[in-house]
Specification:
With 143 residues, the protein is of the alpha/beta class. The chain has 2 helices and 8 strands. The relative contact order is 0.19.
Length: 143
Amino acid sequence: MTTKIVQTMPYLFFRGRCEEAVEFYRAALGAEVEMMMRFSESPEPVPPGMLQEGFESKIMHCTLRIGESRVLASDGCNEIGSFSGFSLALHCQTEEEARRAFDALAEGGNVETPLGPTFWSPCYGMLTDRFEVEWMVMVLPEA
């Protein structure tokens, strides 16, 4: 018997910078917050010793809608960790939209591959944003 998978969503842990990241993605991509809860708002108390000191008012869980997709986010329990081994792929309808999103995400970040044509996309680029999240921004070719 196989399990029916409904959806896969990335869950990003921002090591104490989630609220800043949420505001950045709102401005850069028009992201919308569907749900946000801080550790201090949890219906059950956080177990003693679980959180780094000062994280009580940090974000325990957040759901962001970016276009038709959702990204889950949190501050995590401390400032330890990093993003590695994945990129978020942002598909845009037009080159103009891709350039706007790419430039906004690149602000304070690092461009690895500038936007340009490839054999699979008329407009493709890679960057790491100011929160160390890797992005691949592209326009899908017309079918």
